[in-house]
Amino acid sequence: MRIGYPCINLTLKNQYSSTFRLKSYSEKLFNETVKNNLNHLLSVLNFNKTNNIYFFRIGSDIIPFASHPVCDIDWSDTFKEKLEEIGDFIIKNNIRVSMHPDQFVILNSKSEDIVKNSIRELQYHCKLLDSMRLPTSAKIQIHGGGVYGDKEKAKKVFSNNFNKLLEESLKRRLVIENDDRSYSLQDCLDINSETGIPIVFDTFHHECLNNGETFQQSLSSFIKSWKYTTDGNPILDYSSQNIGERKGKHAKSLNKNHFIYMYDELKNTIKENQVDLDIMLEIKDKEKSALLALKMVQGF
DNA sequence: GGCCGTCAAGACGAT
DNA sequence: ATCGTCTTGACGGCC
Q1: Burial status of residue A171 (CB atoms within 10 A of its CB: 0-12, 13-18, 19 or more)
Q2: Cys staple from A159: which of A134, A194, A223, A277, with CB 3.0 to 4.6 Å?
Q3: What are the per-10-residue average pLDDT scores of chain A (300 residues)?
Q4: Which residues make up the interface with nucleic strand B when CB must lie under 7 A?
Q5: Is the pTM of this model over 0.85?
Q6: How far is residue A132's CA from residue A68's CA, in Å, rounded to a whole number?
Q7: How far is the CA of A25 from the C1' of C13 (A)?
Q8: Which of A134, A143, A285 is nearest to A200 (CA)?
């Protein structure tokens, strides 16, 4: 089992700006920024390895404006060596990486342009992972998208677009995550049966939106959506409620009791299904919680 | 040097 | 109609 955290390491400060405004876009600034971002990513991965953290989500901004029309730079060629160096490091150390494009990726949008732009954005994510020569277990996770007042129809549009509009290399990396107000685990299972797309099970979103399943039922159904040999370990996103804040807001730090209760349930599932899982902690204090969780799990 | 409005992009619920 | 939220963080203009 790997435990990871998303996008940012709060211990290691990136000494350079990691992105810039579209207004200040230039080839020079772009190349400098990407170079620094890639170097920084490698330091973060090194930090993680030193601390036994073998799961990390790479931030989508690592190549700024990569899918924007303004970007006509062949960055995968310019930075070929660096990208392959990072990929080699990841593979050599049995690290798992993933990505999570932001909310603007709507595969089932009513607007053809938004679907088109969404696919461009996904292609960028795919190209980055491909350029690092990573296996298809390096996943890109997205949500179900819009509902538009008719979820059954929206799910069909998602499935049709997934099946018809995406190239195979992209399909092999895509996974769908249940969200906290539109697409429940059951909705994702429905989409899975039409597309075969594996499901990232977000336990916190599931607490916010579910269909009354037991935790064990949820776990065994989401696990079945993964083909371990090509998809890698099923991924589970974990967080807990930020007490006093609106429902669905992520905790600032690891809720130890909540986590250990969840982990205890997981252990049974892992044993029964003879499968390993990778856990992504979506907690605001990032690697601090990951390190704490790791310690707790090791002492279990 | 620090403050804080704003940032490429969409959808949705709350106000 | 406008705002806050989503993995929100951080850029960059202004004082």
Answers
A1: middle
A2: A194
A3: 92 85 90 93 94 94 92 94 97 96 92 92 95 96 93 94 95 94 93 96 90 91 95 93 73 88 90 91 90 87
A4: A 21-23, 60, 65-68, 102-104, 106, 109-111, 114, 117, 121, 145-148, 181-182
A5: yes
A6: 21
A7: 17
A8: A143
